[in-house]
Design a protein that fits this description.
147 residues, alpha+beta, Virus Head Decoration Protein, Chain: A, two-stranded antiparallel ribbon, 11 strands, 14% helix, globular
Length: 147
């Protein structure tokens, strides 16, 4: 059994090793996903919510709690009216340029940022944490209204 340092670097290395071990195993996918019909054009990696009509839309941290209640991240781009696969929790391995160990938050128009919003009227929504420059562990949290 491998021993890891009791610090952030040790935790990150343990997650990377776990990720590699799961890839090599026959456990199947390392995420939970579900398919929805896109209510608008959704780019790859867009953060999405499901509207009252049951369609997937780009989430937003400034409009209202409903649009900030995130379902997950789009696995691939989808045009309006087509199927979009949403990763609801787990490792998404198709990113580039992520900051390892950084927390990622929802922005306007379904985007991701490492800078948490501040100021009244915005919702703080944690989407996940970068495990490496190409892997985001998606684990959306409930929105918190900032005052």
């Amino acid at each position: 059994m491998t021993s890891y340092p009791s610090n952030t670097a040790g935790i990150i290395q343990a997650l990377i090793d776990l990720h590699a071990a799961l890839q090599a195993s026959s456990l199947g996918p390392r995420y939970f996903k579900r398919e929805f019909t896109a209510g608008e054009a959704i780019p790859i990696h867009a953060v999405v919510y499901v509207g009252s009509d049951g369609l997937a839309y780009k989430a937003d941290n400034a409009t209202n709690a409903g649009k900030a209640t995130v379902l997950g991240v789009a696995q691939a781009a989808a045009a309006a009216g087509l199927t979009v696969t949403v990763i609801m929790q787990g490792m998404v391995e198709t990113f580039s340029g992520l900051t390892t160990s950084a927390e990622y938050y929802l922005t306007l128009d379904g985007g991701l940022t490492t800078t948490a919003p501040t100021g009244g009227g915005f919702y703080l929504v944690t989407i996940g944490q970068a495990v490496s420059p190409t892997v985001l562990y998606v684990d959306p949290q409930l929105p918190v209204l900032l005052t």
